[in-house]
Amino acid sequence: MKFRNTIMALAVSAAASFGPAYGQTADGQSVGAAIERVATKLAGRIGFAAQEIGSDEVIAFNGDETFAMASTYKVAIAAAVLDRVDKGELSLDQMVEVTPDMMMIGDAALSDTFVHPGLQLSVANLIEIMITESDNTATDISMGLAGGPAAVTEYLRRLGITDFRVDRTTGEIIGEFYGLPGPATMKVAMEAFVTRPELMTIMGDRNLDFEADPRDHATPLAMLQLLLAIDSGTATSAESRDFLLDVMSRTRTGAARLKGLLPRGTPVAHKTGTIGGVANDVGYITLPDGRRFAVAVFTKSSETSEADRDRAIAEVARSLFDYFHVGQMAKQ
């Protein structure tokens, strides 16, 4: 509570003079640095960027540093699929067959539920379960619908987003994390876990070699750019934007991250990401007066517990919530 009181005090003092983007005024830097001092004790290296919708004011810390996105990159995949829907190349009610050999490990709502052949899902439901449950099978099918990783990256470049790259499917990412002989399908993974049972224990361990790989990385500011482009209707049509934000509002993962310390009932539309020493959360938070801000919080190189990493993200979100809320009251 003492930490958040400090942020609120800084918000009041900074509100009248907070100027250029990316928190480059002394006051803006003070707010970002105050958040970073507490958060890094809980989660190793942290970076974040936030901007109130409709404003030019941005707070960022380590905003230009790249981080492994983990499953937060699924926001970009969803937007790229919806871009194809907008162009008439796909439709949300189009049915897609999901065969047993497509099933992936990791976040695996589909493979845990459907063990028999005969499953079909609409494009809309693939996006739904990719975002709300972070399902990896739905993600890799959606990646294919988007045209593959290179097509998603090219889509981001068309939006003017450069510090954001999509290189692999989730099956490939997890397969390389574990050192599997191929993408992390259920079949490949189960065979590996039988011969190497120690693999079952390393998913939550820090992996610095994995983090150093530049593939599937973004900066907090680049992820913020994507969130703002989605919200403004630049990334997709207004109809597709509304669909995606509605889906993100139903996310069931990461209750202790962006949402963790916010007032009960605060609307949050978000997407989490977790692998090794990486814990992330990105999305949109609504303030009590109806204003909203977009926020991206990335962490890496953490040796703390998952609960501590979640708490670090929650501290960032609550502090920014107080900053934007109290700062606006100070202006009035």
TrEMBL record:
Keywords recorded for this protein, A-Z: Antibiotic resistance, Hydrolase, Signal
Limits of the Beta-lactamase class A catalytic domain: 48-299
Main EC class the enzyme belongs to: hydrolase
One Pfam entry name: Beta-lactamase2
Signal peptide limits: 1-23
InterPro entries assigned: Beta-lactam/transpept-like (IPR012338), Beta-lactam_cat (IPR045155), Beta-lactam_class-A (IPR000871), Beta-lactam_class-A_AS (IPR023650)
E.C. code: 3.5.2.6
GO molecular function: beta-lactamase activity
Catalytic activity, reaction form: a beta-lactam + H2O = a substituted beta-amino acid
PANTHER family for this protein: BETA-LACTAMASE, BETA-LACTAMASE-TYPE TRANSPEPTIDASE FOLD CONTAINING PROTEIN
Family: Belongs to the class-A beta-lactamase family.
This protein's name: Beta-lactamase
